[in-house]
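Step 1: inspect the first sequence and its tokens.
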Amino acid sequence: MTIDLDSMSRNELMALKKKVDKALASFEKRQREAALAAAQKAAQEHGFSLDEIMGRKSAAKTSVPKYRNPENPTQTWTGRGRQPAWYKQAIESGKQPADLEI
């Protein structure tokens, strides 16, 4: 496909430039994803995660629950972040935080 750039108007050239920029960004994204997948596969074949090889710590750390709802033991809270409704209600009803500790 041959494009005669000299015969195109400024608006046509700008539209073409936008299409080319978008195509390049999409191509680079696909290449990055393919490279990441290949790196993850290679790491797994050697028994590691890519984060372990790169020396990165896992961003998703799970905290141990510190408090439990006495009325529904499946509801717990780590003591971090917003207080759950059951915790607020228990405190408002006169319980102490120590009463709710696991």
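Step 2: inspect the second sequence and its tokens, then contrast the two.
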Amino acid sequence: MATLIHRPEYAQYDFGPEHPFTPARLEMLLDLLRELEVPLDLLAAPAATREDLLGVHDPAYVAAVEALSRGEEGAGAESFGLGTPDNPVFPGMDLAARWLVGGALHGAHLLLEGREAHVLQLGGGLHHAQRDRAAGFCLYNDLAIAIRAMVDRGWRVAYLDLDLHHGDGVQSLFYENDRVLTISLHESGHYLFPGTGHIHELGGGYARGLSINVPFEPFTGPEDYLEAFEAVVPRVLETFAPHALVLQAGADAHFDDPMGDLALTTQAFERLYRRAMELADQHAHGRLLATLGGGYEAKVVARVWAILVLTLLGRPIPERLPPRWLARWQPLLGPEPPGCLHDPVPPYPPIPGAESRHRHNQDTLARLLDSLGRYWL
């Protein structure tokens, strides 16, 4: 079982009607869960304070977000990564982001206090935000702030990022911290934002070997992805022995997502979520804090995250999508909405180049394991 954190104010994190990081994604998810008759006892967490943010973010950056949030001019938006197409300025954005940070931070405190073992923040996953700038739809790094709270209490924390994009913000914020292990599986930065997450990025100082990146070729499917996951993640978690596992559960590595070119299926996501739970139980004292993240295809994102919620709650995965949900969201789902929660089998025609793609992924994995051998394996 898991505790679910959410509050209506999360919808305030809204960059505008044309922006892909829309709060409608969460509305679709919550509506789907209700139609599936999933009991939703949602915990409303308080917003993070300014002091909470300053444990991770530069004071000048926080002050700029606050000023721009109030509509003040001359706050140097562009120098902080704000006022861009990815991160446009909007009124009230400081508080909107602090609501999301507060959910992840409250989840961390629930683990620290021993009140809960599995916590899912139904929002957030803002893994691109850096110490002194916004990036990739992310204003404040809720994940890093939650991890910092646990590290400050003496815990070792493992961070596992399943988003399509490299978890660069979390990695950079803990790159030289030997109490944080970051693992990111993502489409290669040679092809995709943010252009980082290469296998040579291994951490610095006493944390050398604690930043682990598994970059995949475009159109990589479940077989190569799951093979790499099993080759790397269980072994490093067993050795690192964290007090808690933090999971960024972005849904944009799905084959239908428009933001990139990985080709995971809903079945692969379910397998990954179940493995994350098992590994937390085996190697992280049973403690798991999960957030959402990327996911930009209406026909996909609510289905993938519903599978996440059902998996964490220990409930079966129903076959069919509720007709009333399909009818309500038809304008976003399009003329041919999916009928089932899981993808059809096979989900798509064979993608050309499978053999060379597999060889490249195998070579990348072998070189990564060779690099990690002196630290872990």
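Step 3: confirm your contrast with the notes below.
The domain at 3-372 is CATH 3.40.800.20 (Arginase; Chain A). The chain has a mean pLDDT of 96.
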